[in-house]
Amino acid sequence: MASGIVNIRRDVDDKFYRYRMPLLTTKIEGKGNGIKTVIPNMSDVAQALSRPPTYTTKFFGCELGAQTSFDEKNDRYIVNGAHNADRLRELLDVFIDKFVLCKSCKNPETELVILKKGRTEDIIRDCKACGERTGVDMRHKLTTFIVKNPPVKAKKGKKGNAGDAAAEDGDGNESDDMMTKKIKAEAAELNTEAALAKEDWSADTSPEAVKQRMKALEGSMAAAVIGGDDEGSDEDVNSPYSVLGRWIDETRDDVDDPKTHAIAIYKKAEELGIEKKHKTMPVIVQALFTDDVLKQIEGYTPLFAKVVTSEKHQKSLLGGIERLVGLAYPDLLPVVPKILMAFYQADIIDEEVVTQWGTHVSKKYVDKDTSKKVRKASEPFLTWLADADDDEDDEEDDE
Q1: pLDDT tens digits, residue range 177-212?
Q2: Which of 17, 202, 223, 370 sits CB 3.0–4.6 Å from 366 for a disulfide?
Q3: 221 and 118, same structural domain?
Q4: How many other C-beta atoms lie within 10 A of the C-beta of residue 182?
């Protein structure tokens, strides 16, 4: 049985290409009219493509004019008839082109979104790399199967995929509005301790004071690379992190199109060799955002979707938020819940990560007192997350 790992895009020969998948394998079972092709690693291949294994299996059936069957519990996916592995691999390439790769940038970091328009539905690929949304060919038979079997919403602790989110946007605006209103109300009703915290954060807003805070920020950027984020590290204004921070700060005010600027930021980080480093997250947050952060986040969502690739990156992003509201713009303390909600709804931070962050004070990015105040301000958002989970559990119990 053939095995191995191959590039998702078979036309890319680069052995360092980051998007990889297991080589599709097959096994012929039965004989005569009962002969069938079993695909032992269909789940692994589909997982690498971020698609349900039923989609790929059904696609083979549509292309070959064959019946298909799935036994998801036992991880068994079958196409009736005898089909060699090479033929199915060729068809898998076609599936990837039609239902996975972004039509704009050819990146596989996409999610299928089902949009309802009256009595009809459209399926689009939502690209997390470039931010483009491109349609699929609705004439293909697989689209009917996808509409009838949309991606299953993730259970507690995992946010649903882009398809679920889009469906909610099309038909669940009322739910989104209620959620937003609830967050706003809770953020406005921070308890007395949080209100006092805000008073403690009263800061000198004179130009000289702002310059001093920016100098401190630049020093913290340098410390991120010199001492692994340890306190007391020597500053290095020539580190790639400091260079990136200064470059973003210098170009930020001349931005006409956030999307273009986001691409430029990524290319600059790539040029400096730190585009994949988790320590880059606090630098981007501190240098990019201002006191208008709530409006700015939306325009730079594709950038964060590109660079935040692990739990460690998420924690560093949250560390950047601590520095942003704790050192540069202390008046933003009351809107911390809204900042977290924006990143959560954009699928940048996960529930488990932000919940753990919110309940564990740390001196990694700011002093302990500042860390406490930022987490205290985040309580309305954390409470909303907990309540949402409780509601989901209650619905499951009712079923």
Answers
A1: 454 554 545 444 444 334 333 333 334 445 555 555
A2: 370
A3: no
A4: 15
